[in-house]
Structures are given as structure tokens and as C-alpha cells.
Write a structure and sequence with these properties.
This protein has helices at 43-54, 82-96, 114-118, 130-143, and strands spanning 8-16, 20-21, 27-28, 33-40, 59-67, 71-74, 77-81, 125-126, 156-157, 163-164. By secondary structure, it is an alpha+beta fold. The protein has one domain (4-164). The strands form four sheets. It has a four-stranded antiparallel β-sheet, sandwiched between helices. The chain has a two-stranded antiparallel ribbon with strand order 2-3. The termini are far apart. 29% of the residues are buried.
């Protein structure tokens, strides 16, 4: 049996941004945003890391977590972590459905909310429904071995089998 600190997950998080007042004095509110990500260990520690980054100025919750163990062959690269392929497939599924990424980096100019633009994982929030996010992960699970999606241009697979943008790694050759 795998110890919790070594278990691999794909998770869906929800982020409720606070209502803000614009320059005209109007209140702006936002629909809940959703993040699909991967983690090894305790998903709650990932949420706590995000909460620490944003200094509790927004609400973050765990919507769903999926324990996904194992490795797969990814376009002739051996031992790529399955949970990373599920995440890649889920992101591509949402992109194919015209779901947009929400750019939180633009929040750096809003007084009192700069922490949101600096939080870890700030680039992977989607402006979609909870149901769309969960269905994207379920689709990613279903097709991760038979129809894995291609990496984005700035991604590669590192020595541990993780898909990342940081460090060194291999890029598969797509036939």
C-alpha cells in the first residue's frame, strides 16, 4: 500500500475572488474559477500553500480529488506519470471547448489583491463551471492511455516523469 505522502492526485480547486470596487464606484463580482492540477502527497497541503500565498483574501476550496497512480508510455517516452497526462488531457479538453484561462497576473495593480497575482499556480485557473472542470478530468482519465494529448510548446517531461516547464527534460517525438 502506498503511503499518503507518495500518492499521486489530480485535483479540482475552486477559487472565489472577492468583490471589488472599480474606479467608478461600481462593485464587480466574479464567478468561481476552477483549477485542475496535479500533486503528490496531501492535496490539503496544496490548498494551504495557495491560501498562504493569497493571505486569505479569496476563498479556495477542494472541489474533487482523484487518486491516479501509475506511469504510462507517452509517445515513446517511458514512465511518464499518469496523473500528469490526465491533467494535460483535461486542460486540452477545456481548451477544445473554448473555455478560457483566467489571467490572474493582471490583479497585481488592484490595491489589496496583489497576493492573488503572485500565488503559486496562478496560471492554471479556468473560467468554467464546476461540472465542466470535473468532466474534463473524467475525460482525461478515460483517454489518458489511448489518446494522450501533445505537450504545449514550452513543456517537457523531466527525469521523474513529470510534465513541467522548469528545468531540463525530454520532448516526445510525435509520429
Amino acid at each position: 500500500m502506498t503511503k499518503n505522502k507518495y500518492k499521486r492526485y489530480v485535483y479540482v480547486l475552486g477559487l472565489q475572488l472577492p468583490t471589488i470596487e472599480n474606479f467608478a464606484g461600481e462593485n464587480l463580482s466574479f464567478a468561481e474559477l476552477f483549477k485542475i492540477g496535479v500533486f503528490t502527497g496531501y492535496v490539503n497541503s496544496r490548498v494551504n500553500s495557495i491560501r498562504g500565498d493569497i493571505d486569505h483574501c479569496a476563498t479556495v476550496r477542494i472541489v474533487k480529488q482523484f487518486n491516479i497512480e501509475g506511469d504510462i508510455d507517452f509517445y515513446n517516452l517511458l514512465n511518464v506519470r499518469k496523473n500528469y497526462i490526465v491533467e494535460l488531457n483535461a486542460h486540452n479538453y477545456l481548451r477544445d471547448k473554448n473555455v478560457k484561462w483566467f489571467d490572474l497576473e493582471g490583479w497585481q495593480c488592484i490595491q489589496g489583491l496583489q497576493e492573488i497575482s503572485q500565488m503559486s499556480g496562478k496560471t492554471e485557473w479556468f473560467n468554467c463551471t464546476e461540472q465542466q472542470a470535473i468532466m474534463a478530468v473524467l475525460s482525461g482519465i478515460r483517454y489518458c492511455e489511448t489518446h494522450p494529448q501533445k505537450l504545449l510548446p514550452n513543456q517537457f517531461v523531466n527525469w521523474r516523469g513529470c510534465i513541467t516547464k522548469i528545468g531540463k527534460g525530454k520532448i516526445p517525438i510525435y509520429a
